Amino acid sequence: MANNNTLVETEETTIRKQASDALRKAALSEEAKAYLLSNPVLFNLLLKAARRYIGGETLEQALETRKELRAQGYQTSLEFMGENVTTVAEANEATHEFLRIIEALKGENKGDRVTLDLSHIGLGLDHKLGMDNFRKLAKASENTSIDLFISAEGLDRTDEVLDAYFHFSREFPHVNLTLQAYLHRTKNDLAKVLKESRGKVRMSKGAFDGPKELYLPRGPELDDRYIELVNTLLEAKRFCSFATHDPKMVERIMPLLKQRHIDSSTYEFEMLFGIGESLLQRLKNQGYPCRRYVVYGKEWYLYLCNRIAENPDSLFRALVDIMS
Description:
The structure is a single chain. This protein has 324 residues and is of the alpha/beta class. The protein has 2 domains: 2-45 and 307-323; 59-296, TIM Barrel (Alpha-Beta Barrel). It is built from 13 helices and 8 strands. It has an 8-stranded parallel β-barrel, surrounded by 7 helices. The model is unreliable at 318-323 (pLDDT under 50).
């Protein structure tokens, strides 16, 4: 019986992996996206599923979502969805939208956060364009309570993202960084971050594909590495945002905070809007600082596919949302 159970578990794992890979391919398919956008019935059905994970399609809707979350006791991070723009106009439009976010938040002085992909504002299209656009955002949010967080991107962009972070963090102390635990290089990257900058670190497991020799797959070894990197940040007394929805990671982090008597102003648990809701609520109710990561915009198709790909069982939830 044990062998049969093992075979069933292996088959289920394989099916989930195949479903996840298929969803990621669908997310990157321009043909699938074009068909979706041209089919109003399908578009509206999938949008119903996407609403679980996005704060809205406009900034005004996202600000309403943020207001509701703050009333529940959460801090928030806002991101205008998008990446890998292909024209200067798109990069500048995205930059303008991020400036709108900053303008909407800076008068409230509530410790808000704005997170973005550098490729969304043009770094992958033209290095100088991306750097100039990010400088506009850094200047606009300077001397406010807003933190700017640079997101991690694909493995081929890691050096470029880190170089941009080091460049700007020397001038703007409110510029911060996301690192991905699954990369073999991250231990060395974190050592450099701790040595050469003062910024906050958002630690995620990582979700991009690439050459297998560059990263660890999901599993116990990656879990151990995540905790090792978190430990390094706690030892250095560097602010860390634990960006994980994994209950196992949360259960391993909580004792570290208690053993080290870590001040609650130097860490937080952060989860994406619509994911890990009961877990984050439990943490908040126990007095831990908690943040909801809220994305908004019309580029929700890729985002929805990726969220379901991370947990293919969410496809059933998506079907319920569509039919409700």
